[in-house]
From TrEMBL:
GO terms for molecular function: adenylate cyclase activity. Residues 20-216 form the Adenylate cyclase class-I N-terminal domain. This is Adenylate cyclase. It comes from the Bacteria. GO terms for biological process: cAMP biosynthetic process. PANTHER family: ADENYLATE CYCLASE (PTHR38760:SF1). InterPro entries: Adenylate_cyclase_1, Adenylate_cyclase_1_N. It holds the Pfam family Adenyl_cycl_N. The keyword Metal-binding does not apply. NCBIfam families: PRK09450.2-3. Its EC number is 4.6.1.1.
Length: 949
């Protein structure tokens, strides 16, 4: 190329109109060549659409497509249809005839430009036409609305012709100051990408009709003086104002635009990474040069001014690739460059392998072959890329690593650039936060999360035939793993093939297959169950349950959802996967018939049939999580974690429980559903419920504190009584599962519990009686005592409660007389008497205390003697007995005193009638259960001493 072909107009040296005309001709010639390339890739009907667009915006004719009304703005600057356009129009409507417009008609359509992939290396059969309609800024709102309706009508007509067209109305004056039609923002990140959009327009737009961009005539070295330069061109009449339209200059790109562009491309890249890689890398290359950005539109203009008009090298996609190549080579990042090359090759989608007779020798193929030769790709690599539609798990997993790595690199670059440039506004901070969470949700690995392999890499990962096998884990003796293989393999062939995927648990593997569409309705699945009880029937139902709970494809996540912590949306609980809970009965050929059908306590041996849980969760961020619960407490562990993961009541997830094991599957699933439903109801009441469940001979209590649900395991009934007798910080209702404690008195009276009262329940089983007390916070006290009469059983207790209430009232502050400290004592008798199963609870009146019948008063005072040690003082009929005086003989002396005072010859129990714990509690109001516990210990010691006296 000779130096004389370069045009360098200079304001100081004067500008030749011929030079400007020559420049305009170069741009138009390049645009015409690109348009010719675009026509090559279109069908005749699509070609007709493209060729007729200027005519349709030039005239308003009722017989032509797009007609709205006679008042719709029409007339394209300096446009007259040629014979070919008129012939095309007449083929559409034979009666149409074009009449040249009158002298100086209005021309409100200033320019028509084609954007998008048409005329580029990446043009494909499905490429759409993005058309900018630049109109007169003086059009009224009604006229713009008319024009918009015309555009919508033409889009429908183009679709009927097999072309996808989109029209964007552009007011040049508004565009220059960053305002534009909202539709024009549909393919970028809002209005924050003004200059990057303009950069893309200047280097890719194909002129169809009307005025030409003034930007064409301004040399790159004058870009910073764009306003002054264009003013001179117009004021000195080097060009006429009606010949050009001004969309602005490229002298400066604000750093916030790179953030906006990166955000948008990363957002799109999560679903279609190949389409975004090139634009992300270009944005990174631009941003790395900020503030002296050498954008591609400026390189493009430089080349035209220098008459380096190589149509291939000025192809928009080739220019983008060259810019990225230059950037990555300078950084020494060959792996990223290879990914960019693969992205470009797959974007172009022109296979270079296969039978020669099936190839076309179009310009796109020839250009792509030239690029591939530069890259030194061999036939094997090309064949792999050309078989992308057949890619399956292994290849997709490898490619995913590269793509996810690139997206994460871009995100880190973007956040670092934003900090360095201090270009993070409150809006972009929010967008960066949302985007970071989108990337995390889509690609971050974490325990239990099912990895999504195929974000737009291959069209279909489904396999025709697979083999699923349970095999010993050679690295962990005694453990097993599940493996998935290609093809239908026999048991002895498994050792010679490498599995596609292996997992410790079956559901982890099946969920991975479902999430990634590795198994679909046409996949044939061979099964080798190993030591499990898995059947083909169960396997089929497990897959169906996954499909019903996690419906694919998953929808887009709203930004507001991502700004909140993830919460469960769908939960699938699968019980006893691959396990027959009654297998040992089948092995022993035992046929069980029983009336005890509770799945947690089955038959006379009270066998637990609920053995394992696999929980599959789809959360609000579209993450799929798998969790396994096994071991002796699988049910309670699962319930605890499930309940703690529940969000607020208004956004509760759908919970499905399924069981497909060989025995009693439906009953097992129904039993677990009942437990979950009850637990959720108790949690919603927010009353710190305790939920008592019996599994075999063990007892489990779920402590239902919202967000802090925990469970306690109690091995036997004495441990249960100890737990129920613990002090509580507040009233805590105790809810019994209907199948729990069905042969115990507790199952009858525990539902009677209520706050702020003391409830006494007793059952006579001579020669003893059982006393139960539920105190004001629902703690349980139990004592078995010798029985003589109902009065002798209850009156001492009633006296003790009266003394307790008297002390509480006495300690009441004088300035708060309305505070209630009095607790009503209610009495209930459990019937029938004896050791059989209790049937009823009958409320009784408090026992009558006859004034004329004297009673022996025994008062106890307990104080802290030293840390961890207490001292006891007893008052027997007014006489003091202290361990300071009597030491370990205290109870023996008191016992003899009591016996000496009695007139009756028979021995009977002694009761503590009053107890003071202020020496331990201080000013605190002690819970009744604490007083009853001390009372029982003192009485035991005292009565034992009486027995020995």
């Amino acid at each position: 190329m000779t130096r004389s072909s370069e045009i360098r107009p200079d304001l100081d040296e004067g500008i030749d109109r011929k030079v400007l005309a020559q420049l305009r001709s170069r741009f138009l010639a390049l645009s015409e060549s690109r348009l010719a390339r675009a026509y090559e890739g279109l069908s005749p009907r699509q070609q007709s659409v493209l060729s007729l667009l200027p005519l349709f915006f030039h005239v308003n004719h009722p017989l032509l497509p797009g007609y709205v009304s006679g008042s719709t703005p029409a007339g394209v600057s300096h446009y007259e249809p040629d014979a070919q356009a008129l012939a095309e129009a007449q083929r559409l409507t034979r009666s149409f005839s074009y009449k040249p417009r009158r002298v100086n008609p209005p021309q409100p359509i200033h320019g028509i430009f084609l954007m998008g992939s048409l005329g580029t290396l990446a043009q494909a059969d499905q490429s759409d036409m993005d058309v900018w309609i630049c109109h007169d800024p003086l059009l009224s709102a009604d006229e713009i609305q008319e024009l918009r309706r015309k555009c919508q009508s033409l889009e429908s007509w183009a679709a009927s012709m097999g072309a996808e067209a989109h029209f964007f109305l552009v007011d040049p004056e508004r565009f220059v100051v960053g305002e534009r039609d909202a539709q024009l923002s549909g393919e970028d990140c809002g209005t924050t990408q003004h200059y990057l959009l303009l950069d893309e327009f200047y280097r890719t737009a194909i002129w169809l009709a009307g005025r030409t961009p003034m930007w064409w005539l301004v040399p790159v070295y004058e870009e910073t003086r764009y306003a002054e330069y264009t003013h001179t061109l117009l004021s000195k009449r080097f060009i006429r104002a009606d010949e050009v339209l001004d969309l602005g200059n490229m002298s400066h790109i604000p750093p916030g635009e790179f953030i906006g562009a990166g955000l948008w491309q990363l957002f799109k890249g999560i679903e279609s990474p190949y389409k975004s890689v090139l634009k992300l890398l270009l944005t990174e290359a631009y941003a790395s040069e900020h503030p002296q950005v050498q954008c591609l539109s400026m390189r493009f203009k430089n080349a035209v001014f220098a008459k380096r008009v190589d149509l291939d090298e000025l192809d928009p996609y080739v220019m983008v690739y060259r810019r990225i190549e230059e950037y990555l080579l300078a950084r020494g990042e060959p792996e990223r460059l290879e990914l960019a090359r693969r992205s470009l090759y797959l974007k172009v989608n022109k296979k270079l392998t296969g039978a020669t007779r099936h190839r076309s020798n179009g310009w796109q193929r020839l250009l792509l072959e030239r690029l591939v030769n530069e890259w030194n790709w061999d036939d094997r690599q090309l064949a792999l890329l050309d078989s992308r539609s057949q890619w399956k798990v292994r290849q997709v997993a490898s490619e995913r690593r590269a793509l996810v790595g690139e997206l994460n690199l871009s995100y880190r670059f973007l956040t670092q650039f934003a900090r360095a440039q201090k270009a993070v506004s409150s809006i972009s901070k929010r967008d960066l936060n949302v985007l970071g969470r989108r990337l995390y949700a889509a690609f971050e690995r974490k325990a239990g999360k099912v990895e999504f392999l195929n974000p737009g890499i291959a069209p279909d990962l489904a396999e025709d035939t697979l083999t699923l096998a349970q095999l010993p884990n050679k690295r962990e003796p005694g453990r097993y793993q599940w493996c998935l293989y290609n093809g239908n393999l026999s048991a002895h062939e498994l050792e010679t093939f490498a599995p596609i995927k292996r997992s410790r648990e079956l559901l982890e593997l099946l969920t991975w297959c479902h999430r990634n569409n590795v198994i679909d309705s046409s996949t044939r699945l061979a099964l080798h169950p190993g030591i499990s009880d898995l059947t083909e029937f169960e396997l089929f139902n497990l897959q169906s349950a996954l499909q019903q709970s996690i419906v694919l494809p998953l929808g887009m996540i709203d930004e507001d959802v991502l700004l909140s912590p993830s919460v469960p949306h769908e939960i699938l609980l699968l019980v006893n996967v691959g396990i027959d809970p009654l297998r040992h009965h089948k092995d022993l050929n035992i046929l069980m018939t029983t009336e005890r059908t509770d799945s947690l306590s089955y038959a006379g041996v009270r066998e637990n049939l609920v053995l394992t849980f696999d929980q599959i969760t789809l959360n609000s961020w579209n993450e799929v999580l798998v969790n396994r619960f096994d071991g002796p407490h699988a049910l309670l562990d699962c319930l605890t974690e499930l309940l703690n993961g529940l969000p607020e009541k208004s956004a509760r997830p759908v919970i499905r429980v399924r069981c497909f094991c060989h025995n009693r599957a439906q009953a097992i699933a129904q039993r677990v559903e009942e437990l979950i439903g009850t637990a959720q109801l108790l949690l919603d009441r927010r009353l710190n419920h305790r939920y008592l469940i019996q599994v075999e001979q063990r007892y489990h209590v779920l402590e239902m504190i919202p967000g802090q649900v925990s469970h306690v395991t109690l091995e036997h009934v004495p441990a249960l009584f100890d737990y129920l007798g613990e002090e509580l910080s507040a009233y805590s209702p105790l809810h019994l599962d209907p199948q729990a404690l069905d042969d115990s008195d507790l199952s009858l009276f525990i539902p009677y519990g209520q706050p702020e009262c003391i409830q006494v329940f007793y059952r006579i089983n001579e020669p003893n009686a059982d006393l139960y007390v539920l105190d004001e916070r629902n703690a349980l006290w139990h004592q078995q005592v010798p029985y003589h009469t109902e009065s002798s059983l209850l009156v001492p207790l009633q006296r003790f409660f009266q003394s307790l209430m008297y002390r509480r009232v006495a300690l009441l502050p004088m300035d708060n007389p309305l505070e209630s400290t009095s607790l009503e004592a209610l009495y209930y008798r459990i019937t029938p008497d004896g050791s059989g199963r209790a049937r009823r609870v009958e409320q009784r009146s408090p026992p009558a205390m006859l004034i004329e019948k004297p009673f022996f008063d025994v008062q106890a005072i307990i104080e802290e003697a030293s840390p961890g040690q207490v001292s006891v003082t007893l008052y027997c009929d007014g006489m003091e007995f202290s361990d300071l005086e009597f030491g370990d003989q205290l109870f023996s002396f008191v016992a003899r005193r009591i016996l000496d005072q009695r007139r009756e010859p028979q021995r009977y129990r002694c009761y503590i009638t009053d107890l003071d714990l202020s020496g331990i509690l201080g000013d605190a109001r002690g819970q009744t259960i604490l007083f009853l516990r001390y009372k029982a210990e003192l009485e035991q010691s005292l009565n034992a001493a009486m027995d020995e006296a």
